[in-house]
Design a protein that fits this description.
The protein folds into 2 domains: 119 residues, PAS domain (Beta-Lactamase); 195 residues, Hypothetical protein af1432 (Orthogonal Bundle), CATH 1.10.3210. Strand 1 and strand 2 form a beta hairpin. Helix 8 crosses helix 14. The protein is built from 16 helices and 5 strands. It has 340 residues and is α+β, with helices and mostly antiparallel strands. The mean pLDDT is 90. It binds fe (ii) ion (FE2). The site of fe (ii) ion has 6 residues, from loops.
Length: 340
């Protein structure tokens, strides 16, 4: 600390001759800094500002000095918050805000503040703003291209859905109806809209693996042989293999892989249980069973929603995840959901 003070003393001896010279030295420093910088007293009034702040706001120095900080942000409560937090904590280390210039244009900035000592207390403090307009533009661009890429992926998935549905008319629409129910359940369970979107895509494509099952088996109105049933049981794994290389921000291939797994390990293909199964797969599983029972199948007429609800309620906790069952039951109980 002492050596730091000595070196500062030496510096001032070299560059500053007297007090006036010190003021001009500080002015030089302030005007050289490309970022807007200003100083605020404990009452929240601006007592100094550099040329970069005048440039970004378009305000004359006389309007800025002596004004409350709200002149920069257009809102009293933002200025009060900066004051309160800086004095209370000693600093703000990066806060994204909108600066308003003299024409009312909003400029995104990142604000850093620090009291003279860097400690909490009633002192004046220095504020530095960083114009992040370019960074915001770059982030928006990145977001737009990610969205474009996702749309392309979603369109690919939609095309795959159509392909499977055209080949297998009996389950045409099954995946769409499962998606509708699963998304309603996930909404009930508090999923974010982003996660619901991932679940929706998983549901839309969950039976893609049936593409490897001969169409005459899928549309066979009679009871399937053991060998035929074994072939159908491969479809989650085949679906996983088809989807595993599609790069999406959700674990779609794993959700599809696990959609016939059951809580007690009695499902397929891996017989995993409980926490080993993704929550998304557990929701899909319940929606899948309910939709399948409620609809007509090549080998039987529709059993109806009541039978389906009774099936998931009876096996709540053994085969099906309790919260998913509860969400599904309540959707039908209060009539807030119906298949198309
Ligand atoms: Fe399936």
């Amino acid at each position: 600390m002492t050596s730091q003070k000595n070196s500062k003393d030496n510096l001032y001896k070299i560059v500053v001759n007297d007090l006036d010279d010190l003021y001009s030295y500080i002015d030089d420093l302030m005007s050289t800094i490309p970022q807007p910088v200003y100083v605020v007293n404990p009452a929240g009034v601006i007592i100094d500002a550099n040329i970069a702040l005048l440039r970004i706001t378009g305000l004359p120095l006389d309007d800025v000095i002596g004004a409350e900080q709200s002149i920069l942000f257009g809102e009293q409560k933002i200025a009060a918050r900066i004051n309160r937090e800086t004095l209370g904590k000693g600093a703000i280390n990066g806060r994204q805000l909108l600066l308003k210039n003299c024409k009312g244009k909003e400029i995104p900035v990142c604000l850093y503040s620090r009291t003279r000592s860097g400690e909490p207390g009633d002192s004046s403090y220095v504020v530095t703003l960083m114009d992040i307009t370019e960074r915001r533009k770059a982030e928006d661009k990145a977001r737009r291209s990610t969205r474009k890429l996702l749309n392309a992926m979603e369109n690919t998935i939609e095309a795959m859905v159509l392909m499977t549905e055209m080949r297998d008319p009996y389950t045409a629409g099954h995946q769409r109806r499962v998606a509708k129910l699963a998304c309603a359940m996930a909404g009930q369970m508090g999923f974010s809209s982003d996660r619901i979107n991932g679940l929706r895509l998983s549901c839309l494509i969950h039976d893609i693996g049936k593409i490897q099952v001969p169409a005459e088996i899928l549309t066979n109105p009679n009871k399937l042989s053991l060998a035929e049933f074994e072939m159908i049981k491969m479809h989650p794994l085949v679906g996983y293999e088809i989807l595993k290389n599609i790069k999406l921000p959700w674990p779609i291939s794993t959700i599809v892989l696990q959609h016939h797994e059951r809580e007690d390990g009695s499902g397929y293909p891996d017989g995993i249980k409980g926490d080993k199964i993704l929550l998304d797969s557990k929701i899909l599983a319940v929606a899948d069973v309910v939709e399948a029972m409620a609809s007509h199948r090549p080998y039987r007429p529709a059993l109806g929603v009541d039978k389906a609800i009774s099936e998931i309620s009876t096996n709540r906790g053994t085969l099906y995840y309790p919260s998913a069952v509860d969400a599904c039951v309540s959707l039908f109980a209060d009539k807030s959901f119906q298949f198309d």
